[in-house]
Amino acid sequence: MRNALLMLAAGLLSVRFLPALPPLGLLLALALIGLMCLPWRTYLLSFFLFGLCLACLSAQRALDDRLNPALDGRTVWLQGQVVGLPQQQQGTMRFVLENPTSRRGKLPARLRLSWHQGQPVQAGEVWRLAVTLKRPHGTVNPASFDYEAWLLAQRIGGSGTVKQGERISAAQGFAAFRDDIRQNLLNTPAYGRGGGLAALVVGDGSGLSRADWQLLQDTGTLHLMVISGGHVALLALAVYALIAGIARLGLWPARFSWLPVASVLAFAAALAYGLVAGFEVPVRRACLMMLVVLVWRLRFRHLGWFWPWLLALNAVLLIEPLASLQAGFWLSFIAAGLLLWLFCARLGRLPWWHGWIKAQWGMAIGLLPALLALGLPISLSAPFANLLAVPWIGFISVPLALLGTLLSPLPYLGEGLLWLAAASLHWLFYLLGLIAALLPAQTLPAAPLWAWLLGALGAGVLLLPSGIPLRFFGALLLAPLLLVPIHKPPMGQAEVWLLDVGQGLAVLLRTRDHAMLYDSGPSYGDFDSGERIVLPSLRRLGVKQLDLMLISHADNDHAGGAEAIMRAMPVAAVQSGEPARLPQSLNATPCIDGQSWQWDKVTFTTMHKADAKSSNGKSCLLKITANGERLLLTGDIDYETERALIAAGFDLKSDWLLAPHHGSKSSSSMALLKAVSPHSVLISRGAYNSYNHPHPQVLTRYQKLGIHIFDSSQTGAQRIELGHYQKLHPLREEQQRFWR
Questions:
Q1: pLDDT tens for residues 128-167?
Q2: Which of the four, 349, 435, 442, 502, has the lowest number of CB atoms within 10 Å?
Q3: Helix/strand/coil for 596
Q4: pLDDT in tens, 631-655
Q5: In the predicted model, what is the mean pLDDT of residues 297-311?
Q6: Which pLDDT score is estimated for 376?
Q7: Residue 446 counted as domain residue
Q8: Tens digit of pLDDT for each residue in 432-472?
């Protein structure tokens, strides 16, 4: 039975790695093969095929529920109920609308909406809204959040921007109850830590600041502030221990058996906490494992560590096969499995302090391959920070927050407990800040498959029981994973990455021993692409410092991410076409017209019209020549600057052209295109930008001249091996996923 469940889980997990979903006919054939194999010794194959078919059918159903392309970009009136907890950040309300209806056509079962400067929205309310709808779309980069996968895992079939709306009915139901609890917690005055209390009690982290999230990431303690299985398990064990203690003291009524009552109440407490917290994957896993353990305990049977873990894994995947698309699913089950492996079925009893250190050591080693595979930062301070934070949160902050919430109707008592909980979070964040200042998190370069497999094997060897000899060889196997050689272009060639930053621009240029960044992406509201996209991608590609950051001009879509990059990575120099308009912290110097230099036999030349009338026209251009192959980066220049550059006699001829001003109607004149004579043009823009970039007239001009068009909204990040005379490498094609 155990092997059958393993194969079922393997089948359910396989969908995560498919570049495309099999057609329905093939799935039916596989299901038939599974039925035929069931009575024979090949029955394990049947379980694998059943899991695969079930997951593929579930994924296809979610894809089919996406927004109809005919409604993409259209504004329609619709009506639906708000579910989950709406989030408000910097004047923008974000929420999920369930079962929306419209006269214009069938809509997905769930929509994720944003309302800028809109009315307050509460969970459980019914609204009638005018919404500009969009199909799911996200950026694709060497390292960035996969928004499309997240939407699919949440079964959200579209997004949209609210233009106006009216409330049809007030909040009601359990969702409204959760929202009331959250608002009460957010209003806790002590130390401004109401957002942390809401994260611990109801699983809503929107009240935490960007600085808080960065601190938690740097110290590897993110799992503690977003409801984890550990919180649920602690509450269940506390209820169980309380009743067991009463029975041991002889205070329990003799005519009732205390064990069934303790088991039922422990699971009820875990389930209630999980429901209030939103019942996300870690909570589901903890509740299911707790249920298995308690059922086994009631039957007085010995239970190993593997059965609860395996049954919970299959149960979570059967309930939601797309859970495997989320990084939290993998980290949750791997972390739980590691703890069970480290402490179950081991001989002898360790001192508590020894076991505590062993748990942190084991988690740091065991989660390392998973974090690298998922492209997540590695926190060197995590073992030390968790030694402090896990008991602090588990035995001080969470109990005080839960008791304060439960007793909030009582004057002073509930408020006092919440005040103490907030104070405990304040001092914990202070101490974590001291730790993070010494050892911040790092995103390591992507490792080849062979290095990852050796590293995963090495981590497993290091975590074997202490009685097994030669465990230190695991460190040797782990070394290639941590010491991945950085890919460097050959002498005379350059690697160019046009990153997918939406409606903005960021280009990484790297030679053998140097790296520079041309523009830094936009920063809008609480989203800074320099922090969220550019920096993780640079680190994933092995870039540790920049020799130059060239900001074409000071508009936000080109310069918005610069400060975040400067704070997190050494930058030797900053130049710009508009240095005076940039923040003083960048210490930018002017772009020099006609300046030329060489790095590793690759030539860089700047062009700049400082007397241009517009900000866009003052963009600093950069031409890169590697082994005779040329690329021209143009910023946001307009017709006037294009004419001035041609009249000045600049050699603009290039093989690759970055479309000026994202393909705006006011640029890419026929004169410029003939002067450059590129075989390909690169367009960096957002899929649903409000500027109509690229303009149809500009696209017609490109097509008339036979220029190949590569649009970042369709290709994701784009890589060019300049000087190698090979075609462009679109990341969406190289990293095909069935949900893109």
A1: 999 999 999 999 999 889 999 999 999 999 999 999 999 9
A2: 349
A3: strand
A4: 999 999 999 999 999 999 889 999 9
A5: 72
A6: 85
A7: no
A8: 999 998 888 888 888 888 899 999 999 988 888 777 777 77
Is the pLDDT assigned to residue 720 strictly greater than 80?
Answer: yes
pLDDT tens column, 314-354: 988 998 999 999 988 898 888 888 887 887 755 556 666 66
Q: Are residues 578 and 529 in the same domain?
A: yes
Q: Please give the residue range of the domain that contains residue 660.
A: 494-734
Residues 166 and 257 in one domain: no
- For residue 262, which of 237, 287, 232 has the smallest C-alpha distance? 237
Looking from the CA of 53 toward its CB, the CA atoms found within 13 Å total: 18
Is residue 54 domain-shared with residue 101, that is, in the same domain? no
Closest CA to 202 of 279, 270, 125: 279
Of 64, 81, 108, which residue sits at a domain end? 64
Show the tokens assigned to 720.
């060019």
Asked whether 298 and 258 are in contact (CB, 8 A), the reply is no
The verdict on 304 and 420 lying in the same domain is yes
Which pLDDT value is given to residue 206? Answer: 84
Strand order in the sheet with 596-599: 596-599, 602-607, 621-626, 629-633, 656-658, 680-683, 708-711
Do 51 and 80 reside in the same domain of the chain? no
pLDDT band at 210 (very low <50, low <70, confident <90, very high): confident
What pLDDT was estimated at residue 106? Answer: 94
pLDDT given at position 345: 52
The residues facing 113 across adjacent strands are 95, 160
Give, as one character, the DSSP assignment of residue 546: B
Q: How far apart are CA 672 and CA 655, in angstroms?
A: 13
Contact 367, 334 (CB under 8 A): yes
The rounded distance, in Å, linking the Cα atoms of 667 and 701 is: 11
Residue identified by tokens 């000026």 is 660
Full-model pTM? 0.89
The CA-based angle 283-263-347, given to 5 degrees, is: 80
Of 482, 489, 488, the closest CA to residue 444 belongs to: 482
Helix (H) or strand (E) holding 54: helix 43-64
* Domain-embedded: residue 451: no
User: Does residue 366 share a domain with residue 253?
Assistant: yes
CATH number of the domain residue 500 falls in? 3.60.15.10
| Residue the block writes with tokens 């079964």 | 155
Contacts (Cβ under 8 Å, ≥6 apart) of 23: none
Chain center to CA of 341? 28
In a domain, 481, yes or no: no
Six-digit token string for 529: 């692409």
pLDDT digits (tens, 9 = 90+) for 530-549: 999 999 999 999 999 999 99
3-class secondary-structure state, position 331: helix
Residue type, 287: C
> Positive or negative CA dihedral for 617, 619, 625, 630?
negative
Rounded CA gap, 201 and 401, in Å?
A: 7
In a domain? residue 44: yes
Q: What is the C-alpha to C-alpha distance for residues 522 and 488, in angstroms, rounded to an integer?
A: 28
Of 566, 494, 475, the residue nearest 724 (C-alpha):
494
Identify the pLDDT of residue 354: 67
701, pLDDT greater than 90: yes
Please state, as a whole number, how many other Cβ atoms lie within 10 Å of the Cβ of residue 504: 30
- The beta-carbon contacts of 674-677 under 8 Å, at least 24 apart in sequence, are 674/705, 675/646, 676/632, 676/652, 677/653
What does the alpha-carbon distance between residue 253 and residue 487 come to, in Å, rounded to a whole number? 71
Residues 45 and 108 in one domain: no
User: What one-letter code names the amino acid at 344?
Assistant: C
> Does one domain contain both 47 and 118?
no
- Contact 511/543 with Cβ under 8 angstroms? no
